[in-house]
Amino acid sequence: MLENTAKLLTVKDINKSFGQRQVLFQVSFDIKPGRIVGLIGPNGAGKTTIMKSIAGLTSYQGEIEIDGQKVSKTHTAPLKKVGSLIETPGIYPYMSGYNNLKLYAGHTSAEDLGKIMEQTMITDFANRKAKKYSLGMKQRLGVAIAMLDHPELVILDEPMNGLDPESVHSMRQLLRGLADNGVSVLISSHILSELELVADDLVVVNHGHILFNGTKDEFFASQAAKSGHGTRILIKTGDDQKAAGILESLGFQTDHKGKHMGVYTDDQHDLNKMLQQLVMNKIEIKSVSEEKQHLEDSFIDLIKGGDK
User: Fold this and answer.
1) CATH number for the domain harbouring residue 19
2) Residues near 293 by beta carbon (within 8 Å), at least 6 away in sequence
3) pLDDT per residue over 270-293, tens digit each?
């Protein structure tokens, strides 16, 4: 299968200042059709400013292209392909959720409006005034508004904020469904465990600088390489203490956390050598697995490294 190299969104050398304070520095990345991109960084890193720049909600220096068309003050037509939920949803409190949707609906048909309400799970409270909505309800209505008029790019700033576990799961399914139908999604969230489950690619920003831009797998691989230890392999044996002594005598680093011994390597040949040595020393090997890396831990390691 040929890799899809088309770019729906291109952000190139974006700089942004508020008065004398510069908040974005040469920010560049792109998004391909049907990809979910997680934009992550600490509070104040520049995530929301990046999203507002793409959505045409703030000025900037640099270039932004949507589907090959440059966006500018005099050329905003490409923004019609963008739906967004950034910061607080623009909801009128004394109108029902349904009437809020109709207000923003544009060319969305009544049939599509119904589908969006079902997808975002707002049907049950759509006729209630929005002022009575919980935070989670408002978030779901905001996502529904972002989905109107069949956008090709959906930008969501903390869409899982205030959602209960069932709604978070449904939101994850919704985002994956959009991507499977070719819609690109740029999403920020402080719930990194959820972002890890849904994102295809990651853009990491800190102090207005891009620290990483690539696939999720590339991110984990780069962090493992930076650690200097390689991937942690979990090995459970009949005698972990003896096994650790044998592996350390061969020059491998081991540790013991929880119920498994850990040994570090990224080389399949080295792993085979380890296992052969254990077998030759009559040590029973009960299980071998690769330790799963977690986005939150890897993100913290990257941010700490970038602050040095």
Assistant:
1) 3.40.50.300
2) 220, 223, 224
3) 888 889 999 999 999 988 887 767
